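DM from R.C. (forwarded with permission)

"hey, sorry to bug you on a friday — could you get me a structure for this? deadline for the figure draft is monday and I only need the backbone to look sensible"
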Amino acid sequence: MQDIISKHKTKNYFDRIRELTKGVPVELVDFEQPRDLARTPTQASSNFITNKEQGDWAENLVTRAINETSKNFIAIKYGKSDDLVAGEEGFDSFYQDFQNELDTIGKRPDLLIFNKSDFDESLGFDISQIPHCQITDYVKKAIAGIEVRSSAFLIERYDVAMQARTQKFTEIAFITRDKILKEYSDVLDHPTRSKYITLLNTLTIETISIFDFKVPGWRSNERLIEVNELFKKLKIAIKEIQKRDYLSITPKVEDIKVVYKWIETFNVPHFYFQVFFDKVYGISFEQILTIISDSDNEGVIFSVEKDVQNQNKTTIKINSKTGYPIASKVDEPTHESIRKEMDRGRLLFYVTFKGGTAYLDLDKLRTVLGISEAEF
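My reply, with the result:
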């Protein structure tokens, strides 16, 4: 059985990943350049701690789902983490150790999956605090490393809302366009304004996703003011239509480099699991590199954005539904408010999460991880 644990777990895995990195545009990720040094955070916020609690819950959700379902595999906690937050005594030392480890072995995925025959009971279900030099050979026995990301959304509800939004603003856009052409053709039929007639006639279902124009700014008479307001309305509708309409799996550009470093160190297949409050999606790091290597995919199934919620770091946002729905249902956790007292008497209030269940789709999970049906 050991020889067929996973079709991914071969001597050639890192070679495949290395080849894929050569196809990633350097404008997106330059693997030849060292990673940017991170500044040590100086102060945590309530929102940051809530997000951390949500992430911890998501890790626990996936771990329990695997360990309560699988006969032959075990998930354990591996990712570097600590209960300390910025501003607490000892955090600076922890953060610097974390940065040093990134440069030494890369970024530990949150979870490791082992065949039960390779599981070391003496180390237990949490090896996140063990120095990497003590567990290198053990980690290399893992069949998968999983980076767990969480999102405070119900993805199915989101999709319905986005479809409704697109339909609503598409109707507004074309009704507004038709109104301008029908009722204000006399205003636009002037040498300095006729270009707007040509422009509006190019607005179609096919072009609306890339359509753009500058609102004229006319103010010199009542009719011009009226049509100018309609152009404003059209501009707003088009901007709404052009917003990203999918929830995403979000590898940061800087993380792609340190994930690659970890794969180089251990030659263990790496995956991203995106946990929503109603479903869980999974995608391999190999598939992520394949997607971002094709520039034709940008604007279709992935985008590159500055993440304002994460210090404006450049983030690749891949449509979650490009991955596999490895859990088709999630029971929501309970939650409660926690009071945390910081130094100098500063108080933070945040939300913590407990419980919940992810109902795994075993066929999809096996497909993502490359595990045969007989094994899982």
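R.C.: lifesaver. Residues 214 and 343 are 51 Å apart (CA to CA).
me: no worries. Residues 156-242 form one domain.
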